[in-house]
Write the C-alpha cells for this entry.
Amino acid sequence: MIFSTVLLNVKNKRKIASSEYWTKPIPRKVISKYLAKLETQAKVSERLRYQPIVLEKYKFFSRDCGDGIIIFVTDPDESNEDVTDKINRAASSLRSILVKHTKKYVKTHYDQIIYRFIKSRFVIALVGNIGVGKTSLLHLLMGKIPPETHVPTIAVNTEVIEEIRFANYELVILDFAGREAAGRLWDFSSTDMIFLLTDSTLKNIVDSKSIYTEILSEYPELPIILVANKQDTPHSLDSSVISKVMGFDAHAMVAIDLAYRNSLLQILLKALLEHFKLDVPDLPVEHLLCI
Ligand SMILES: Nc1nc2c(ncn2[C@@H]2O[C@H](COP(=O)(O)OP(=O)(O)O)[C@@H](O)[C@H]2O)c(=O)[nH]1
Ligand SMILES: [Mg+2]
C-alpha cells in the first residue's frame, strides 16, 4: 500500500505538496532522516541513489524530477517493482509539468496530478451458488435498496463492477454468475479476494464447502471470506454452526436488509486490514472505505 507521496523542492528540501492515502501523515522527522540516509547512500554509489530504503515502519522511494524530488512512502511489504514503475512514470510527468507551470500551480493541482500514478486495483469476487444473494449483497454494499425479485446473473463473470476507494486502491467488485451458468470453475487469476456466499440451508452449505475446497486446491493463496446469508429465513442454520461445518468463520448476513450494511462494511474492512497486514485504525469505516 502507498501511504503518501511528498514533492520537495530540490534546492532547499522544502515541501511543495503532498498527498495522503492512509490514516496519518508521515512525520517530517522521518522524512528528514530518510533524506539524510539517501544522501549517504548516493555518495557511496550513484547506482544506490534509486534503491528503496526501509526506515521505521515505512519504505521510501524517490526520484529527481527537475526542480523537485518526488518521494513515495509505502508499507515495508510493498512490491519494489510495482512502486518503481509508478514513481518512474510520476517523476517523468512531474518533470515536464514543473518546466511548464509554476510551483503554485503544481501545489494546487497536486492531488489530481499524482492520483493516476499511485492508484492500484484490488479485485473482489462474489462467489456462490445461484440464488444465494450475491447480487443483493452487492446492492447492500453500495447502499442501494436490494432487488426483491431474483434476476439470475447469466454472464460468466464481470456482470456488475462497482468501485470503492480504499487507500490508494480502487476495489473492483465482480458479481460472478452461479457455477451452473459458468459450467466450470471460475477463473480467479486476476482476483485478489473472494467473498463466498452461502444461504443458510444445509444443502447449500455442503455445496459451498465443495466450492471452497475446489477454489483452495487451485488458488491456495487467495483469501476467502465466508458469508452466511439469509439468516432471516425460517430454519436457517446459525452462523456458528455454519462456521463449524466449514471449518472457518462464517459471517452472519441478511443481504436484503439495509440494517446489515454496517456489518458488511466492517467485514470488508477487517478482511482488507488483515490482507494488507495493517493495524485497525481508530476511525469510522466511512473514513477508510469511500463508496
Ligand atoms: N429472505 C432473504 N432473501 C434474500 C436474502 N438475500 C437475497 N435474497 C433473495 O434471494 C433471491 C436471490 O438473490 P440474488 O441476490 O439475485 O442471488 P444471486 O443469484 O446469488 O445473485 C432474491 O429474491 C433476493 O431478494 C436474504 O438475506 N434473506
Ligand atoms: Mg446475481
The chain has two domains: 2-118, 120-290.
